[in-house]
Specification:
- It holds the Pfam family zf-C2H2.
- It is found in: Nucleus.
- By secondary structure, the protein is mainly alpha-helical.
- The chain contains five helices and no strands.
- The two termini are 54 Å apart.
- The relative contact order is 0.09.
Length: 153
């Protein structure tokens, strides 16, 4: 049996063109194919930017100047990106830093949450103790009330 892979070490797959995050790289590639690598004229879906460029030149005799549905500045078809392959290293480092900051914030919020797991378990214990001590109190909506216990004895 091998060691488990740490989830924190790898970054979550994201689309270079629109910054949308995905749970799996397979879903990311499907998104890019449908959203960014789709021909503007015939709606044919291609796997890569270079495939889209070649298709536009051969079939429609047009040059692709911008990638559809991309953020301004990232719509240049010169960079070949397929999934997470080809994404610039600076952007990967920046995204990893953002994700670690978000992870730390979530962890801190979970620790300081007044309704966190510790508080809920404490409230549950207090409520159970109260019910044990006060069996005669009728609480609306409570299924194990005093009347029900008397009927089945």
């Amino acid at each position: 049996m091998g060691r488990k892979k740490r989830k924190g070490s790898e970054i979550k797959p994201f689309c270079y063109y629109c910054n949308r995050e995905f749970g799996d790289e397979k879903v990311l590639k499907q998104h890019q194919k449908v959203r960014h690598f789709k021909c503007l004229y015939c709606s044919r879906k291609l796997s890569t930017v270079s495939g889209l460029i070649v298709h536009m030149l051969q079939v429609h005799k047009e040059t692709l100047s911008r990638i559809p549905n991309a953020i301004p500045g990232r719509d240049i078809p010169d960079i070949v990106i397929n999934g997470m392959k080809g994404v610039p290293a600076e952007l990967l480092a920046e995204k990893k830093k953002e994700q670690t900051i978000e992870k730390d914030i979530k962890r801190d919020n979970k620790d300081y949450n007044p309704h966190g797991n510790k508080m809920l378990s404490l409230m549950n214990a207090v409520a159970k103790d109260f019910v044990r001590k006060n069996r005669d109190i009728r609480v609306p909506g409570m299924c194990n009330g005093a009347e029900r216990n008397r009927r089945f004895r």
